[in-house]
């Protein structure tokens, strides 16, 4: 079910912003790193794609480490004191207010619905002017989700691992078409080979921040250049490269990293892609 939601979000964004070159593997990588596709703490999706039990993270903190006060009267997270990241993509209430969409056409925007949450993340990833088929573009896109350097590298490595496994499946004889996200990938991912001829360092500052590790949560095309490497490799693979990395990590940690946003959006306008009425969060 999660795989179908990721692929649907890719299709919607491809129609809304073809220049973004978003691959479902990057959306899946975010889902893997934040909640293991909703499976964290025993979560499962019902027939409508809604996660049960409702998954909520710890209260979001600001630059000073203090918990941020509630911004939505508890409508999204059920907490009237603080804002909590929620759902399979751990979206903060202020972020959801900007990018939340009804992806599956059921008449409601639900951050616990894998379809709605996947498309919301896709909107965040593509809300700049970056080409996500290039590593600098992917770095900028993931930074808009969470600017923690470890989060960025974990998501990019998971994306590479998914792409490798997808290629292997498609090149197998007979061809194997995946029906669920791959689960046999590491979540530490520090040993995952980097893209060939691409920068190895993640940005020290997120767009519009002072480098404290606080996610901006809101897209701003004019800010994204400051967080991306200045050199763009000419041979970076598109969403599905034909070659596979020479090595894969051998150690798989038992626990998936847990990343939660620590700030709220700084702009009030909604990305244009979120207005799309997708057929597919």
TrEMBL record:
Protein name per its UniProtKB record: Transglycosylase SLT domain-containing protein
Single GO biological process annotation from the record: peptidoglycan catabolic process
Annotated GO MF terms: peptidoglycan lytic transglycosylase activity
Basic and acidic residues bias spans: 49-70
Annotated SUPFAM superfamilies: Lysozyme-like (SSF53955)
Residue stretches of biased makeup (Low complexity): 186-281
Upper taxonomic lineage: Bacteria, Bacillati, Actinomycetota, Actinomycetes, Propionibacteriales
Region Disordered, residue ranges: 41-74, 172-281
């Amino acid at each position: 079910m999660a795989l179908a939601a990721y692929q649907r979000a890719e299709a919607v964004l491809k129609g809304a912003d073809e220049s973004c070159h978003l691959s479902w593997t990057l959306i899946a990588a975010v889902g893997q790193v934040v909640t293991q596709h909703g499976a964290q703490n025993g979560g499962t999706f019902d027939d409508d794609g809604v996660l049960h039990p409702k998954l909520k993270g710890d209260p979001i903190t600001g630059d000073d480490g203090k918990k941020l006060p509630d911004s939505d009267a508890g409508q999204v997270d059920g907490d009237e004191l603080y804002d909590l990241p929620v759902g399979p993509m751990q979206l903060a209430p202020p972020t959801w207010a900007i990018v939340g969409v009804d992806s599956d056409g059921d008449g409601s925007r639900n951050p616990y619905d894998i379809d709605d949450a996947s498309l919301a993340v896709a909107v965040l990833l593509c809300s700049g002017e970056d080409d996500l088929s290039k590593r600098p573009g992917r770095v900028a896109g993931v930074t808009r989700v969470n600017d923690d350097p470890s989060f960025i590298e974990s998501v990019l490595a998971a994306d590479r691992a998914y792409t490798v496994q997808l290629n292997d499946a498609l090149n197998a004889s007979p061809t194997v078409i995946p029906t669920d996200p791959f689960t046999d990938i590491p979540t530490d991912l520090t040993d995952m080979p980097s893209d060939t001829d691409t920068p190895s360092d993640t940005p020290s500052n997120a767009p519009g921040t002072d480098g404290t590790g606080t996610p901006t949560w809101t897209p701003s095309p004019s800010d994204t250049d400051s967080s991306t490497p200045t050199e763009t490799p000419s041979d970076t693979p598109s969403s599905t490269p034909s070659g596979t990395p020479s090595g894969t990590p051998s150690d798989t940690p038992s626990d998936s990293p847990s990343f939660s946003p620590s700030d709220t959006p700084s702009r009030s306008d909604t990305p244009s892609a979120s207005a799309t009425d997708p057929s597919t969060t």
